[in-house]
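Quick illustration, no need to memorize.
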Amino acid sequence: MNRRMAALGLAAALTITSCGAQEVTSHAPPTPPTRYQASLTVLEGGGHGPQLCQAVLESDPPQCGGPDVVGWDWSKVEHESRGGVKWGEYRVVGTWDGARLTLTEPPGEPVAERRDPATEDDFASPCPEPEGGWRPVDPAKATQESLEKAMARAATAEEFAGAWIDQNFPDPAPTTPEEMEKQGNDPKRLVLNLRFTGDLAGREKWIREVWGGALCVSGAQRSEAELREIQRQVEGELGEGGFTAVSSSVTRNRVEVAVWVATDDLRRRMDDKYGAGAVMVTGVLEPVR
């Protein structure tokens, strides 16, 4: 065998090896697309086809708008119909392309929403209960007028981070709506909760000048003004239609954003721009586990 024939043989062997490797790679199973689920209203009308609705305008017939649902067939589901509008509540499962949900299985009965403690406000006072329980330190200043003065004064501080009222019902607690309303509106039975960044002791003394009822002054990482600015920027960044809800939580001291699908990339962007924990992103559509 001369050198030219040997070279050709080597080239052929290399070609066969390369093709074999490519063929093995091409047979790797593709990653299936993520499927998402939610229990929502699906509505068609007003010039659009079936769409997902997180919030429904209670008109007659109802109105709403959201992402299109691909593969929907009203003849296969029970629904209401009036004035050219069709709607109903269903559990939907499908794939998401960034703008539409394509069904991967028939719609089913809606599932009750799971309660998530991370997204529920807890209005209990974060301060330890004083010895003897929550009670006014100066009953003469535990009036509705004093309460309003205290809240107005707190809101003037640059460090102000929010306010809320904790109902301090007696034991046993009232059992009728009338008793609850009467005792719940009594300033002497309320705990005024105020949050500030910075010097808490100084702010508590400042508020005590006008308020003699039960008081809890606690710290916060971000002021109310900072949260409002973050919320404004988030709304501008995501744009109209890029979110379903944006709000600021006083008790959790953060901005909360609901989008149709919450991605890790979006969460990282929010953390990188505003700081870890400043913005919580949740998805209306959740991955099927």
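Residues 1-23 have pLDDT under 50 and may be disordered.
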